[in-house]
Amino acid sequence: MRTVIVGGGLSGLSLAERLEARGHDYRLLQARDRFGGRIMTKWRDGAAFDLGPAWFWPGQPPARGGPYALFGFVGVHAHARRDEAALRHALREQLGRLFGARAAEPQRLLLKDWADDPLTATQADTTPQYAHPAYGLPDALEDLWEGHVNFAGTEVARQFGGFLEGALEAAEAVFARLTMRNDADV
Q1: Half-sphere CA count of 66, side-chain side, radius 13 A
Q2: By the 8 A CB rule, do 24 and 167 touch?
Q3: To which H or E segment does residue 4 belong?
Q4: Contact at 8 Å (CB) between 170 and 158?
Q5: What is the pLDDT of residues 148-164, one digit of tens each?
Q6: What is the pLDDT of residues 83-100, one digit of tens each?
Q7: Which stretches within 6-155 are classed as H helix?
């Protein structure tokens, strides 16, 4: 079986790992100079900062001694984020309002706007979202080229679209279709 995986984000890497485990022939193509898609870590002063998807679980022990990080652009529209100097100013003001004067002067302020990343987003991603979007593979994309073209990404996941789990869910669904097709061809 020959499979081309376009994109080395979480879905692409998960699909490649599954195909590798089954001994299937594949090629993984990646446009960036790194793998991970929207999962990206920056190292500063010996500390790792995740600039991709992040969350905090209830009961997670609080970090002690720093350094610390805060993620998100609360209430700043995508078009307003294009002026980096104004954005940095707005973020520092927001940190001060939320956490006090000391927080308004962070040691470093690392920015990554995925909606402005040409290898991740399109113009449609700059439109404000007021609720979590409905995801899932559109009917028009089902069974393309008699099942030879499949889409796996968090955007096409039926249950967990838009989340890390959605990327894994979509890769699992494509893997099931590929292996079912391959088993039928044997």
Answers
A1: 10
A2: no
A3: strand 2-6
A4: no
A5: 899 999 999 999 888 88
A6: 889 888 888 888 888 888
A7: 10-21, 84-99
